[in-house]
Fold each of these.
Amino acid sequence: MLINNQKKIAIVVTIPSTARFFLIHQIESLAKLYQVTLISNFSLKEDSLDWLPDNVKTVHIPIRRKIHLLSDACVLCYLMKIFYKSDFKLVHSVSPKAGLLAMMASFFLRIPVRIHTFTGQVWVTRQGIVRVVLKAIDSLISSISNFILIDSHSQKKFLIKHNIVDNLSSCVTGNGSICGVNLNKFKSGLEARKKTRKFLGINNNAFVFLFLGRSNRDKGVIELGAAFYELNKRFKNSILLFVGSDEDNHYADFEKIDGVMTFPETSFPEQYINASDVLCLPSYREGFGHVIIEAAACGVPAIGSDIYGISDAIVNNETGLLVEPKSTIKLKDAMELLMNNSKMRKRMGENAFNRASTMFSQQLLTDEIINLYANLLNIHDSD
């Protein structure tokens, strides 16, 4: 039931799946306290919005993920119109494009509380003028926001070092991660493992590596495919699953490698995790590596690049292995080590589970967000 004096807040994301897969628990909890509006590009191919609470409003904006000056200018004007009519007390953006346009619109209209969440920096892997422009956009977002949320401690140190954020007006939610892990959904299960392997046609004795997420160059998928190609020459019982959207059209080449299986984006990542033995995320850049703690909650250790973000999600030699980024040889060696050392793998899986369940629960992160909203809104009210 709607309470008339509830404050109005807006959450702005570029694509609805960001809210569906990462923010839904927070939205559900916030909708009990505030009048929540979710703003996104709802014209994209998505499932029905039955995952949203009934009392959450939705507003469509034709926002694009990539830079398009004319389109972005139109979306900025549209957002200003929406904000002007809605009397929001707080606007929270997630993702670079949504952050740029939502923070600009809310700044121009002097919306009291403006929050943006950084989940990694695209410019880290870019060069030249592109890097300069993208870095300047992050600096602009930070300068016109009231508060910055960051999904890992190492990312915060990186952003402070590059003068993007300052220590006082930014914080890491909980121990890291954008939303924590749903421990009711992500949990180990022998039956789930057998069922998924049977469905996928994978032998129970096979050793399964898993990549779960958007497949593009920056995720290190080229090195992962090459490392597995060499590994599979010696270990024919090894399998590598690529699960997620094929953004750079690599799947056709990967499928030529013996033992590689590819699948589209899934609403049931926990099934693929339970079917696997080791998760691999050899990214060049990552804000945190959320999938790593999802795997950890299922008792599955991970191999990841030794970069900011992932180094928060993996404790090296305790919950998984960190390897030199872009190194096919180091990645292959780590994969082979865990494949051949069941004792180490079991120990790391148990450590990963204990860490995920005690430090990264979804409820812990949601409580932090709720408290942050309340504190920032109270500060505004007292001004």
Amino acid sequence: MRLLVSVRDVRDARAAVRGGADIVDAKDPRRGALGPVTPRILACIRSAVPSAIPVSAALGDAAAERAVPRGAAYVKVGLRDVGGARRARSLVHRVAQRAIEAGAELVLVAYADSARAGSLPPLAVVEIAAAAGARGVLLDTAFKNRGSLFELLDIARVAHWLAAARTAKLLTAMAGSLGWGEPGLRTALALGADIVGVRGAACDGGRIGRVSVSRVRALSALVAATVA
């Protein structure tokens, strides 16, 4: 089990590393759930993070025509407003090829609030990810002010989604305003996702604030205690 901390720049990235993040995720929280940073900022983040720590990068939603920047081990793509499964499969196939060309692995994002986001249901995203040869799937929320992951989906449905992803041999990740309360981060850890992702819980001042070394340290200790 690994802790992913989303960062918007080098300052955030250094704080995440000092706090013990296992994965540093480049994302601009001011641009939504999967707001991409610029290629220059991504390159700076990659340079600031030790080579042993993987960097992931958000590409946004429906990003098949967007070039995949080099330097990221994983790229995250969502299917917001994509429409039907046929169009989604075509899009994911194209972006998977672009990821391979850039030396990255694709993580496809499923939204707990899929109906509001105009995305496919989470289980359908698992099927598409597996068929496209994606490395993994992330269960997240599209709208950060409309409820956390466990407010939108009950624990049983999240557990069912995780089981389907594991059966498909996909890396599993969970995010979506996972706070310290219950159900929240501890619940996600107990369910056993491979990766738990945070932004707001790692920041002073919420998800638009600054990553805090002490907050990341506490989160890292919680993950370590769960694994132990």
Amino acid sequence: MSKWLGAMAAGVLAAVGIGAGAAQQPAQAAELIILTNQGAVPGVRELGNAFSAQSGHKITVLQETGAALERRINEGPADLVTLNPGPMDELVKKGRVVPATVTPFVLAGLGLSVRAGAPKPDISTVEAYKATLIAAKSIGYSYGCSGTHIAEGIEKLGLTEQLKAKTIRTTGGPVTDYLAKGDFEIGIQQTNIMVGVAGTDFVASLPGFVNIPCPSSVALMTVSKEPEAARAMIKFMISPEAAPLLRKTHVEPAKP
């Protein structure tokens, strides 16, 4: 991951026009649409609100999926997109984003939740987490970046085959949606989209080497009608001012 972040950072500052400090007040306010992946939604909304208050630009954050997302990407209206590295690379190949503007901005760690009121298991160490997985009657996690990393952690623990029969992989919506309905006993996903969800209780972040964070990057879309304001938003998203705002949403700012 650090290799990926370092490679991406090399040309970003010059291409996006990024320097220290916050965005300048615009001569005329723009309306920016940011398409965001599920795991980045809380942080992007926090940053969007702050940037809007500071710059005067109007920020709309959308989490589109399926055909609606494809239309936005291909035809707009949309100005920025946030994605995990793999999907972002695909958009670069398709010419849907400006390659040199792809900017890592956040790392989201993994956490575990139970249904509201249920006993909270011990996951304070890797061994305790392993024991919790073995003892659980059912386990739920998604696909995408977090699901891939959770599965990698389980494989490192040597539990892939042992847990297969009691594992449910979710599609569409956060894992906590399914957990709250009782579809499984414990749910695992990115911490930032699990904390404070009604019908569930967050237990803790995963311990040690099984907590493999999911990185997200932001990029300027080729269909953008407001590239100057969009570049200013990218600048703000990796500024020192953005770091505490991101941490409020239980993620860490990406390191160059």
